[in-house]
Amino acid sequence: MKNIDFIQMAYFTAPRPDPLDAGKIWELFYGAPGPDEFRRIPNIPGKQTVAAGTAAQKQITIASQIGRIDVTVNTVPDAPGEDHPFLESPEEILAELAQKAELLSESCPLLRGAFVLNQLLPFEGSATEMIEAKTGARFPINSIDPTIQYNIQVTEDGDPPLLVNQISTWSVANVQLVRFDSSGATPFAVKTDQRIVHKIDVNTAPNQSFQRGDVARVFRCLSSRAIARIENTTSGSNA
Q1: Helices 90-104 and 215-231 meet at what angle, rounded to 10?
Q2: Interacting residues of 142 by C-beta distance below 8 A, sequence separation 6+
Q3: Tell me: the pLDDT tens digits for 96-120?
Q4: Cα separation, 126 vs 118, whole angstroms
């Protein structure tokens, strides 16, 4: 099981005084009828706007501000199941987001790109032993609540070559599942569980130059690297 809690695409672009409105990005990506919610965040130097709603049976949030556009995909809030709901087919979601990134390239030149995935894993033995097994790290005896972060940097061949950061952050977290009745009133059941959290951040290293035609390739590369990291937590390492 991949157990992906959310997927986020980050599109870093050249700063300009009039960042692309999140509502217009929603229209570009999903068309009519538009987002369920739109808001302009006041008193924010980055002029942030947020559009949110449901598309393709997923909960989508688009946040746009000066120099950056984020698209986050979650399960819908009332997804069925007794356990924490996870995204199905993360490979398809990543591929779709990579296509949507290309739609931004005409009006927003790409400076850097990133995919962030949050993976929640049930305990298999102790948290320390599990993280050691997944990463090859070694913690002192009797360690609890371990946290570790590493970046395996790789170069993707091509024209131009891409320098890619593959950051994994491992930690332990309490996950709370809250249920509501059909009226959406007071929650009637709460379940708290401990999980291993594996945050995957695959991004292009700074100070690389991209042309408009490079955008599709960049995000396809990041997508494949993110999928590889889900399947193999030390992918890209020669160890």
Answers
A1: 160
A2: none
A3: 999 999 999 989 999 999 999 999 9
A4: 20
